Amino acid sequence: MQIVILNDAATVAAYGANIFATQLQNKPTSVLGLATGSTPVALYQQLIAKNTAGEISFSHVTTFNLDEYLGLAGDHPQSYRYFMNEQLFSHIDINKENTFVPPGDAVNPITACKEYEDRITAAGGVDIQLLGIGRNGHIGFNEPSSGLCSRTRVKTLTKATVDDNARFFAGDEYQPHLSITMGIGTILEAKKVVLLATGENKADAVYAMVEGPLMAKCPASALQLHKDAVIVIDKAAASKLEDLEFYQHIEAENQKLQAQLATL
Ligand code: GLP
């Protein structure tokens, strides 16, 4: 894991956006894995700005989102499909037909999960996967106890996740307790993963992911097995890490090396 600790949420978003921009510049036909939640919004704004400025293009890109509420169609304002259109797709030069979100209104969700996996495989796999993290360590909607090799499937949300996400739903509005989510095994197959976390309320989950044991109780700890996982966090989210100074030292050395390589 590469642990990058930055001052604040804005710097985290900028760092993450640069990784995605470089990916698109190196491979315009990239397959992107995308995420929802409040954390990636600032990164999406940066990508929109770069696209508007002509620095990057999404015209040959395919995207796959991590998850969706089961029971919400894509035109529902709280669906993740709607979120992605609003926060990113409607503002960039992407062909929406190349953007995929698990279908929350699938007649047969079991078949839909298999089809989603097949579609990712047919696209050549995900080149780079963006992730947030839940306070309980979930990635996508892989809640604690999720199998570390799990595939795209229907998952029941924990009460903690339902409560955390209740802020997006009006008081009397139906809030799903089920989801379709890429599995942890699916996520681990992405060639690169970039996880963003900001704020003190993520500090326990970040600690468990980085310094805790590999365990289903913290699904994000599975990223310890990934060969190219970049964890980009602000100081508040990093505040419970025991080896903080070591990670900062490694990253400073890493930056020096990158600067040297750039002069070759
Ligand atoms: C939801 C999403 C996750 C996301 C998490 C954290 O549960 N399914 O993919 O990482 O929320 O969201 P936030 O960034 O708003 O804290």
From TrEMBL:
Entry GO CC: cytoplasm
Protein name per its UniProtKB record: Glucosamine-6-phosphate deaminase
Active site: 67 (proton acceptor), 136 (for ring-opening step), 138 (proton acceptor), 143 (for ring-opening step)
InterPro entries registered for this protein in UniProt: Glc/Gal-6P_isomerase, Glucosamine6P_isomerase, Glucosamine6P_isomerase_CS, NagB/RpiA_transferase-like
Known catalytic reactions: alpha-D-glucosamine 6-phosphate + H2O = beta-D-fructose 6-phosphate + NH4(+)
Subunit annotation: Homohexamer.
HAMAP family named among the record's database cross-references: GlcN6P_deamin (MF_01241)
Regulation: Allosterically activated by N-acetylglucosamine 6-phosphate (GlcNAc6P).
